[in-house]
Specification:
10 helices; Rossmann fold; 255 residues; alpha/beta
């Protein structure tokens, strides 16, 4: 059986992705800060599926956490066939008003840890001649987003980084897929600082539907996969609009 490592696996998209991969007979390595959540997810999955699950409670928003995780995985003799860089968060504030330490943590998690984990696990996949890396970006990657300035910039990095290394690996039988979801029912809004609006959030796609989409996109070896017809249309439309207009429209949407 193959093994998938999923970061940010204690809730939302990461949790649902764990269930989807277990259903498709993948052993799992689940990584997140909240140990009790991970233990419950492990038990729930093992009650439903005959898979092996290893959990690591770690804060990946810390410097050198990627190296620490890689060392833990290596020391347990686990082989990672699929790396899913899902962990990430946003800050919903004007940049001038945001906490710089929180901004730094976001940059470390969304960019540095993702890049390092890719760098660390990729050589093993190339050596074996097979593997998949799935990076979770966002439709925010397609335009500047006022009030989510740093977050949208991190996701633009994730998208461009993923597409570039996908091209570099085209003859290695190792495939990189970047997933670009729009708004999704998860803990993202609460963590980012959005005001609670059940009607608004309940109209978003579920984390479960996105998790199914992630698995199908990986199996199809897609390089860039945007979740949802509306999001596909908006991302395509942005190509023809002036940059100032896309920033203005993103600002109106966020408000």
């Amino acid at each position: 059986m193959k093994t998938a490592l999923i970061t940010g696996a204690s809730s939302g998209i990461g949790k649902e992705t764990a269930f989807v991969y277990a259903k498709n007979n993948y052993n799992l390595i689940l990584v997140a800060r909240r140990l009790e959540n991970l233990k419950k997810i492990k038990q729930d999955i093992e009650n439903r599926h005959q898979v092996s699950i290893t959990i690591f409670d770690m804060d990946l928003a810390k410097l050198n956490s990627a190296e620490e995780l890689f060392k833990k995985v290596t020391n347990t003799n686990l082989k990672v066939d699929v790396l899913i860089n899902n962990a990430g968060f946003g800050i919903y504030k004007n940049f001038i008003d945001s906490d710089i330490e929180k901004e730094e943590q976001m940059l470390l998690l969304n960019i540095v840890t993702l890049t390092k984990l890719t760098k660390l696990f990729l050589p093993q996949m190339i050596k074996r001649g097979n593997g998949n890396i799935v990076n979770i970006a966002s439709t925010a990657a397609y335009q500047p987003v006022p009030s989510l300035a740093s977050y949208s910039a991190t996701k633009a990095y994730v998208m461009n980084f993923s597409e570039a290394i996908a091209f570099e690996l085209k003859n290695k039988n190792v495939f990189v897929t970047v997933i670009c979801p729009g708004g999704t029912q998860s803990e993202f809004g609460h963590t980012a600082g959005f005001e609670e609006d059940d009607k608004f959030f309940n109209n978003m796609p579920t984390a479960k539907s996105l998790a199914e989409f992630i698995y199908k996109a990986m199996i199809a070896k897609k390089t860039n996969a945007i979740h949802g017809f509306k999001n596909n249309f908006l991302a395509f439309s942005n190509r023809f609009a002036p940059r100032k207009l896309t920033a203005y429209l993103a600002h109106k949407v966020m408000n």
